[in-house]
């Protein structure tokens, strides 16, 4: 049966839609978007009155922990969490166990996706085993389905290897998503180097550890005309380096996480290990630079860096806890509550960064254009809720926003016209 979404407020900067529209879905595709579409007997009506309709969100930075760490997350639980958050496509990072650095590993994950509703895209490692300087067979992995390459969790080891990765990746039109951290400068650190690292007596990671690698990699992308995407940018100087790179016409893009936009290193003083994140939460000055980068287009994408851990792994002394926090189920409500409600960001800003731009950069759709896949999120801004990790679809409960009161929930997620979330519940 066809589906007709009626009475909702559509926001899709890519098609310049910002107003009341009806959307007709036939099969897996959007067949029509118009101000008024007459209901017919062969249509299921989805009443979206008072709600917002967006292109399904695309998250280019997710850790699903499978293979190897299924006690933290599986493909299925991660994709259910994505659906709950309005994400219709997620891309998983390759730093699993074993690492996704060959065709067989990519194909195995593709098989895991079957039976799940949310689209899963795989990111292959840039170098074998991640820590080595031996390039992966990118063409082979591209044929198997990867959409980008990355050594996330670590930077590509050295400048010459980055150069070779960028040159090789260019042959297959692949983007290098780079974790920018000078490991020698960051060594031993686990929070931002600043006031709180001094007062708490914790070893800090200076923002320069990020800046050095961002500068290196933008210069190398310029040298070989390659494509570089800066993952989870966190420092003000890195934002400026990306801004300057774009001004010079270098093919550089960047992403920021919701937690880096919302929190500062002050949160670490709670000793909540869910605030231990890499790159670390930084200063208010850095946070403001990230917000400015979103607003002026320097930062292209908002990605969650969803990083689930088992409860027992985080229930240790701060220094010994692993880095990372979950984010798929809180991202949009958190950003709406924090930034849209006070007019810092508009809905258009968020939809551009969470759907249009990732879709454009990585060629994954991300709009509500007629003829495109019916990947759609419907958001009710009038429902308040309190973050409780124990209610997450994700196996990870490690959220720094536990107990926060947020506004607005995803009530419906459609993936290729099929319900992934209906009435705010995951369809299994």
SSE inventory with pairings:
Layout: E1 2-12, E2 17-26, E3 29-34, E4 43-47, E5 52-55, E6 57-62, H1 75-84, E7 87-92, H2 103-113, E8 119-124, H3 138-144, E9 148-150, H4 159-171, E10 176-178, H5 183-186, E11 191-192, H6 195-200, E12 204-205, H7 208-224, E13 228-230, H8 236-247, E14 252-256, H9 258-262, H10 284-295, E15 301-302, H11 311-314, H12 331-340, H13 347-361, E16 376-386, E17 405-415, E18 418-422, E19 425-426
Parallel strand pairs: 1-4, 1-5, 6-7, 7-8, 8-9, 9-10, 10-13, 11-12, 13-14, 14-15
Antiparallel strand pairs: 1-2, 2-3, 5-16, 16-17, 17-18, 18-19
Helix pairs in contact: 2-3, 4-7, 7-8, 8-10
Question: In brief, what are we looking at here?
Answer:
The protein has 13 helices and 19 strands. With 428 residues, it is of the alpha/beta class.
